[in-house]
Amino acid sequence: MSVRTDSLDRFIEGVKKRNPGEPEFHQAVYEVAASIVPYIQDKPVYQEMQILERMAEPDRAVIFRVCWEDDNGNIRVNRGYRVQFNNSIGPYKGGIRFHPTVTLSVLKFLGFEQTFKNSLTGLPMGGGKGGSDFNPKGKSNGEVMRFCQSFMTELHRHIGEDTDVPAGDIGVGAREIGYMFGQYKRLTNDFVGVLTGKGLEFGGSLIRTEATGYGTVYMLDNMLQHAKNGMDGKKVAISGSGNVATYAAEKARQLGATVLTMSDSSGYIHDPNGIDEDKLAYMVDLKQVRRGRIKEYADEFGAEFHEGRPWNVPCDVALPCATQNEINGDDAAALLKNGCMAVSEGANMPTELAGIHAFQDAGILYAPSKAANAGGVAVSGLEMSQNSARISWKEDELQNLLRNIMTDIHDNCAEYGTQGGKVDYLAGANIAGFVKVADAMLAYGVV
Ligand code: NDP
């Protein structure tokens, strides 16, 4: 066993021992440590100061009870969380997720990843994540409002525009952010930029809604161009039909690609003619406004509906934009067999380790989520700047900033990840994200 493998194994054993029963967190830390342990092998200062060990431990995690009343007068109880992972380079920043699968393990994996992602954007933001096991599906607006108000009644003690600035994530969109911001303002009497993803009328930024999906496609486009290829004519398989998937589909189409699939938790649609502008507008109405099931799209446009995930559909490019661990080793093998040559991750950690290894062994272009979906938090960072300065930037300024930030992220990954003429975007993203946070931690001494 080499010294490197031995150090990695020992490090991961320690993480597992200290965090029992948290498989998603172990997975996220392993993926990063596999790049960082070899990188710091000849950099003793990071080892002596236990930087990686400290980065794998959140600054704090708050867990709280959320009580609310449903429309039938029943009292309901959920669990709320905020994991403040690392604020070495700026206030904690990261989304809030409402989904029945939310656990401390899921939020620790997301907060850990967020620390590296936020560092990659080049903006002054630390990493955090929060949420609840509350399921907004099938709830009335009144129920969602009462839940959000109760959630914020506790959360407001722990956040602030210079402390911790949450945003949306799965199950938390403009409606939920509005309810939570309203309650924060009511409790504190402060109108400040404490949440991002707000409505444009009350401090939100243009293009925040589109930013994650657009950024995922910009990352893909940058990788293709770097490899002397391009988006035009590419066939694209997308999973998800929420915020990230919708705008990834829109931008891919605008850059000349054909989008063949989208999905939700019930299955996927395959539209061989491509999801054009009008069909995408139908999808937005179906999934975001009427909150229906994706099969209705297939019935409306004569497309195919299948249960499961879309990775058996032949495509040139895969954009997983639904949730974590949605591409396993078999899915990756099916994509490769059908000729997939690039993957850009809109969702957080959508590819299991076996899938990542398959992509890397096949030598295809693979952009990990911490780089590929950083456009969303980047524009959230720009929303924070606008709120602090009490100004609103114009759309074309923001579009340019987003495009440039994604190009910088690509170039930074390429700088740290190029070996033997090929770019390992996973190693590049991990190392580039690590160095900035690690150097700030060194400057602070032992804290
Ligand atoms: P949304 O809630 O808007 O959409 C989520 C989509 O994924 C829906 O189509 C949902 O289907 C589907 N989905 C959720 N869970 C599952 C599951 N277990 N199995 C199959 N399908 C599932 O979320 P977002 O688009 O905001 O987020 C998607 C991903 O992108 C997440 O990983 C998130 O962390 C990540 N992300 C989001 C950012 C943002 O700006 N919003 C920023 C960076 C990352 P259904 O409608 O049936 O629930």
Summary of the model, kept short:
By secondary structure, the protein is α/β, with parallel strands linked by helices. It has 17 helices and 14 strands.
Word description of this protein:
The chain has 447 residues and is an alpha/beta fold. The protein folds into three domains: 53 residues, no CATH class; 133 residues, Rossmann fold (3-Layer(aba) Sandwich), CATH 3.40.50.10860; 163 residues, NAD(P)-binding Rossmann-like Domain (Rossmann fold, 3-Layer(aba) Sandwich). 50% of the residues lie in helices and 16% in strands. The protein is built from 17 helices and 14 strands. The strands form three sheets. A seven-stranded mixed beta sheet has the order 9-8-7-6-10-11-12, sandwiched between helices. It has a five-stranded mixed beta sheet with strand order 1-2-4-3-5. A hairpin with a 2-residue loop joins strand 13 and strand 14. Helix 15 crosses helix 16 and helix 16 crosses helix 17. 51% of the residues are buried. The chain binds NADPH dihydro-nicotinamide-adenine-dinucleotide phosphate. NADPH dihydro-nicotinamide-adenine-dinucleotide phosphate binds next to helix 9.
